[in-house]
Amino acid sequence: MSTKFKGNLDETDLFIIKRLCEDSNTSLASIGDELNVSPSTIHKRICRLKEGGIIERFTILFDPSILNLKTIAFIGIELERSALVGKKKDEVISKLLSMQEVLEIHETLEPFDLLLKLRTENVDFLREIIGDISTIEGVHTTNTILTTKKILETPLKYETIKDLGDIRRG
Amino acid sequence: MSTKFKGNLDETDLFIIKRLCEDSNTSLASIGDELNVSPSTIHKRICRLKEGGIIERFTILFDPSILNLKTIAFIGIELERSALVGKKKDEVISKLLSMQEVLEIHETLEPFDLLLKLRTENVDFLREIIGDISTIEGVHTTNTILTTKKILETPLKYETIKDLGDIRRG
DNA sequence: AGTGAAACGTTCATTGA
DNA sequence: TCAATGAACGTTTCACT
C-alpha cells in the first residue's frame, strides 16, 4: 500500500537510511567508507530508495517556536452516525486535511472516531479552530485534550534501525 | 527557553528554512538565486541558524513501515498523587523517555496527567508496552486509544512559513 | 559494484559597501 | 556589520568497466 519499492532492503540500505536520518548532509564518501563501498554505490542506493518511495525527501528539523506555534492539543472527534462511513466521512476528513493547524488525523475505535493533533499559536486560536471543527457537517462532538508542556516529540527513534530481521517486501 | 539565537529572524532566514524543509539538498546557489543574494550569504545564514539552534539538523523523512512499526496508539496516563510533582514524577518521565516505542510525551491537565504517543510493530507488542508502563512506580492508570488508520501525520506544515509578522526574539 | 573524470557545490579569506 | 567575490577544495554524477 505505501511503497512501490521493488526488492528487499538490505543491511546497506538500512545503514544509509540511519546515517541520513542522523545527518543528511553526510557525504556519500564518508558513508561509503563506513560500509567499505564506493560513493557511487551509496549514490545509486539513495536514488533507488528515493524512487521507491522509501526516502520521502531530504529536509531539516527546525525549532517550531519560530512559527509561534506553542500550543499543542489533541482533539477526539465523535462523528454523527451518518458520517461514520462513505462520502460524508470523506468530506469531514478533507475539511480537516485543509486546516493548517491540523497535523495529524487518526481513525480510532474508542472512545472517539477520529483523533487529531493540532498546533496553534495560543489557546485563543485553538478555541477558534475547535469552533471551526465542531461546525463541520458530520462532526457530532469534540473533546479537547490541551497539553501544558511538551516533554518529548520525535517523529521516529531512528536508533531503532539496526534489526535487519524480516524486512521483506514484494 | 528554547533557543540561544541572537537577533531576529528576517524574511531571508524564513525563506531559507522553508526551502530547506522542502528539500534540504537544494544548493546554496539556487536558494541564493531565488533571493538574489550570493551562495556565501546563504551559507552564513544557515551556519548562524544551526549555531543558534533554529535548525536542529539535516535529516530525511522515510517510510516508517520499513521498520514494521505499523501500530500507532495514544496513551493517557493518570499519575498517583504522590507522583504529580517532584522526584517521583521525574522518575516516571525518565523511564518513559527510555522506551523506544514512546515517541511523544505531553503534560496535560484533563482528563489525564500525561499523554503519550507510541509506535509498535503490532497490537501484541503494544500490550506488552502498556504492561510495562502500568507497572512504573507512580503510574496510577493507563487509558489506551488505539488507532486503526493513519490519515495524516506530519511534523509541521511548513507552508505556514511566510507570515514574517512579529517573529522577534531577544 | 567500482573507477575515474567532469560538473557541480561548498567554504572561506579577502574585499568592498 | 553585512554581503559579494573568487579560488581552493570537496562532493556528486555518470559513462564505462
UniProtKB/TrEMBL annotation, chains A, B:
Keyword Transferase part of the UniProt annotation: no
Keyword Chloroplast: no
Domain of life: Archaea
PROSITE patterns given in the database record: HTH_ASNC_2
A Pfam match: HTH_AsnC-type
GO molecular function, one term: sequence-specific DNA binding
Domain HTH asnC-type: 9-70
Record keywords: DNA-binding, Transcription, Transcription regulation
Biological-process GO terms, alphabetical: response to amino acid
Listed PANTHER family: LEUCINE-RESPONSIVE REGULATORY PROTEIN, TRANSCRIPTIONAL REGULATOR AZLB
Record GO cellular component, one term: cytosol
The protein, known as: Lrp/AsnC family transcriptional regulator
